[in-house]
Amino acid sequence: MVTLPRAPTCDLRYAMTPGIEEEGDTRRQLESTDFWRPIRSVGYPLEGQLKFGRVSSRMSDFVRDMRNHKIVPDVVPVPPDSLLHVVYPGGLRVNLGNVLTPTEVKHVPEVSWPEAEPSAYYTLILTDPDAPSRTAPKFREWHHWLVVNIPGLDLTKGDTLSDYIGAAPPRKTGLHRYVFLLYRQNEKIYFKESRLSNRSTQGRGKFSTHKFSEKYELGLPVAGNFFQAQFDDYVPKLYRQLGHFQNAF
């Protein structure tokens, strides 16, 4: 594994296009090709943000699936670095676009990431870019969960800004993508956001994960995952819990 040398704060960051990294590549060899591309700056050093070398087939699948399902660019400009582990009750795992039902994801899942640092703080977002449907996403994004200042990824000690709401795709709108993204904070942050309960739809729609990350200088997501779901018989029950939910769409 080769790590880029220290770079000063700058206006451009770079990400590699997946699929062509090879063990033994050097920075000089990489820069001689055209697969470095600029992305929006977040204003801090590149060191530690970009690494290259051997990429496992699992990582290649991860990047490919994030792009094939248009998580990039519909939610974030580039894919996260690694896979976030998300498990719902009954051992149901989120796995790069697998299909789960609203009934199966109605309760809060367990979220873990092997690379989480005990002394660091994290932000976790669950969002649906397909509201009210993927073909007409006029309320993109509708965020379902937002937890910040999570110490070492211990969600029980994080600060919940938006209570968890399970998947609630309207009838006859097909599959929706539900995207989990994890950000590493540089420090504990004071977030100037309203607290949203799971008894209302207020403040959920027209959210932007990318703009939120820019506002609080979170940088790029360090891990992510996603599943898909479509309407089932549990959704009307969730609508009743949320009050006039049907009016949100």
Any overview of this molecule?
The chain has 249 residues and is α+β, with helices and mostly antiparallel strands. The protein is built from 5 helices and 14 strands. Strands 5, 8, 10, 11, 12, 13 and 14 form a 7-stranded mixed beta sheet that branches. This is Phosphatidylethanolamine-binding protein.
Element pattern in H and E: EEHEEHHEEEEEEEEEHEH
The profile of the biggest β sheet is: 7 strands, mixed
Low-confidence stretches: 1-55
Give average pLDDT, whole number. Answer: 81
Rg for CA atoms: 18 Å
Instruction: Tell the overall outline.
Output: globular
SSE blueprint and pairings:
Elements: E1 2-3, E2 12-16, H1 27-31, E3 36-40, E4 51-52, H2 57-68, H3 71-74, E5 82-83, E6 85-88, E7 92-93, E8 98-99, E9 110-112, E10 121-128, E11 142-151, E12 159-162, E13 176-185, H4 209-215, E14 223-229, H5 235-241
Parallel strand pairs: 5-14, 8-14
Antiparallel strand pairs: 1-4, 2-3, 6-7, 6-9, 10-11, 10-13, 11-12, 13-14
